[in-house]
Amino acid sequence: MAPTTTAAQQSDNVAHALSGAGGGILSMALTYPLITLSTRAQVESKRADSGFLDAVKRIVQREGVTGLYAGLDSALFGISVTNFVYYYWYEWTRSGFEKAAVKAGRASKKLTTIESMIAGALAGSATVMLTNPIWVVNTRMTTRKRNKETDESIVLGAEAPKQPTTVGTLLALIREEGPQALFSGVVPALVLVINPILQYTIFEQLKNILEKKKRITPTVAFLLGALGKLFATSITYPYITVKSRMHVAGRDGGKESMVEGMRRIIKEEGYVGFYKGIGPKVTQSVLTAAFLFAFKDVLYEQTIRLRRNAAKVAVK
Q1: What whole-number distance in Å separates Cα of residue 195 and Cα of residue 111?
Q2: CA 89, 86, 297, 103: dihedral to nearest 10 degrees?
Q3: Most buried pick, 8, 144, 165, 305, via CB within 10 A?
Q4: For residue range 205-262, what is the model confidence (pLDDT) as tens digits?
């Protein structure tokens, strides 16, 4: 009996992972221009004070509408891998806590706040180590450095320089800076594991409360996801800025540690430097998380339905 139960749990973990990956792809595709604007604001500090519409206009004039989607292919690949790994590990950890709760004779096997945070920490750490290289390449593509004269002389209607491919950016990065560059920013990324911990803990606990009163619909999941991400991103944004700058540090000059990066930002830009681009970032993060939770629930239900139909066909 145990092997069957284990197989069923494994299948359910994969279903959650696949639906999380699919939801991530859909939500990121919808909000990617905001990611471009936020990331550039974080690493191009001299331009970060311009207005939202000015930033959009400058990118479109210089690079065309496609400039808003620079690095989209690597981002979609990255979010699919990130979400698959995260949800798989999260569900695996959660099932372990639920089994322990049943053995302990606890009234409810739903995760406590502490258990939710531990599950999020384990899933987040595993995800960071496996996907950091993908996000380094994506950040390089999103904020690719241009020659100053070229950057300022391109006029409306002029042909923009050809964008580098994901593979081209990866190979150039390894050739110029070595494989270790793929793990630049990994320390603040590990610290930022607190972001999904806060996000998913808030989501899970609010979901547990509401489930006692009514069914959680995609609309409710959308709102809960938005609320959790708004809180988490607002708290952790300074570290997000430091991580983005570390991803491009080797390209722009000498490498620096997380602490050195923080000191330099304070010295050159003041504490406000930690919050460059927070407007589009919070908007993007909240919308992406909200769409993710809404899409994930729908995709999970569809995945389970397809699995059941396939099982019935196999039996026949």
Answers
A1: 18
A2: 20
A3: 144
A4: 888 889 888 888 888 888 888 898 888 888 888 877 777 777 666 555 556 677 887 8
Length of the chain: 316
Q: Which of 237, 219, 201 is nearest to 290 (CA)?
A: 219
Contact in structure between 140 and 173 (CB atoms under 8 Å): yes
Contacts of 21 (CB under 8 A, 6+ apart): 79, 80, 81, 83, 84, 87
Sequence-separated (6 or more) residues with CB below 8 Å from residue 224:
202, 203, 206, 207, 210, 216, 293
Cβ-contact 136, 185 below 8 angstroms: yes
Burial of 58 (0-12, 13-18, 19+ CB in 10 A): middle
Q: What is the DSSP letter of 193?
A: T
pLDDT tens digit string along 7-36?
777 788 888 999 999 999 999 888 888 877
Which ranges of 68-193 would DSSP assign to H, the alpha helix?
Answer: 72-103, 113-142, 148-153, 166-177, 186-191
Q: Considering the entire predicted model, what is its pTM?
A: 0.66
